[in-house]
Amino acid sequence: MMILRSEYARPHFRWDELRCRGCNGSCSYSVDGKPLANPTERSLDKLEALRVALGVPLHLNSASRCPLHNARVGGAPLSQHRATSTLQSTAFDIMLTKGIDKWELIRAAEEVGFGGIGVNYRSFVHVDDRGHKARW
Ligand SMILES: [Zn+2]
Ligand SMILES: [Zn+2]
Fold first, then answer.
1. Ligand with an atom nearest the CA of residue 65
2. Which key words tag this protein in UniProt (predicted)?
3. What is the domain-level CATH number for residue 66?
4. In a domain, 40, yes or no
C-alpha cells in the first residue's frame, strides 16, 4: 500500500519549502529523488507559531541542508540546518521580505521559543531550536 504523506508539514508550510536547496534530489541524502527535509517536530511547531503570531507569509531561504550542501554554503559543521535521514535540523532562515519588520520578527521568534537567533544578516534572520540561547 502506498503511504501518502501530506503536502503540508504545518498549515502554513509545505514540505517542499523545507527541503535542502543544494542538490536537486541527486545526492545520496535525497529521498525518493527529492532533496532531504527532516526538521524536528518541535522546530516546526515553533515556526508555525511564529507565522501565526506575525500574521504574514514567511519565506524561507533555507531549512534542512544535507551535509554536502551545508559544507558547500560554508555552514558550520554542526549547523542546526544540517540534516540526514537520522539527524534532524532545527533551523530556518526567514527572508526579510516586504511587510516584515526585522526586530518584530526577532522579538516574536524569542516569544515562540527559538533559542538560536542570528540577526547579523542583511536579507534574512536565522532562527533555530538548539535548546539554549545563542545570539550572533
Ligand atoms: Zn544533498
Ligand atoms: Zn541559518
1. 1
2. Carboxypeptidase, Hydrolase, Protease
3. 3.30.1380.10
4. yes
- Residue 134 and residue 112: Cα distance in Å, rounded? 15
* In-domain check, residue 73: yes
Which ligand has an atom closest to residue 121 CA?
Answer: 2
Report residues near ion ligand 2: CB below 5 Å.
91, 93, 126
User: If you average pLDDT over residues 125-136, what whole number do you get?
Assistant: 97
In a domain, 106, yes or no: yes
Beta bridge mates, 117: 127, 135
Distance 20 CA to ligand 1 centre (A): 7
Residue 43 predicted with pLDDT over 90: yes
11: exposed, middle or buried (Cβ count in 10 Å: 0-12, 13-18, 19+): exposed
pLDDT at site 77 = 87
